[in-house]
Amino acid sequence: MANLEVFPSSEREAFAAACRRHGFIAADFHVLDLRAERGIGMISILQPETGVSLQYASGKGKRWPMAFEHDLEADVFGPAPA
User: Is the Cα torsion angle 52, 3, 18, 80 positive or negative in sign?
Assistant: First the structure.
């Protein structure tokens, strides 16, 4: 389950839109903001169905959602659910 409430609206919207464009929904992923938890500039995303977990550098704007979408395009997290 995505815990997107802690993210700025622009990042939440970019993440959800990337998911939709590739056949997923935001709830298909576990998203953890490591900025708050560990004080580091990283976002951790897990796709529980495949077990794939990646971390993305956070920063101003929609940088991490764009990197996440690049990985969706490359099927790094596996195919979208049928």
Answer: positive
Instruction: Walk across the sheet containing 30-33 and list its strands.
Output: 30-33, 42-47, 52-57
24 half-sphere exposure, CB direction, 13 A CA radius: 26
Buried b (16+ CB within 10 A) or exposed e, 27-44: ebbebbbeeeeeeeeebe
**DSSP secondary structure, 42-58, as one string:** EEEEEETTTTEEEEEE-
Residue-wise pLDDT for 5-24, tens only, equals 888 899 999 999 999 999 99
Q: Could you report the per-residue pLDDT of 50-62, keeping only the tens digit for each?
A: 999 999 998 766 6
- Report the predicted TM-score, pTM, of the whole model to 2 decimal places: 0.87
Half-sphere exposure of residue 14, counting CA atoms within 13 Å on the CB side?
15
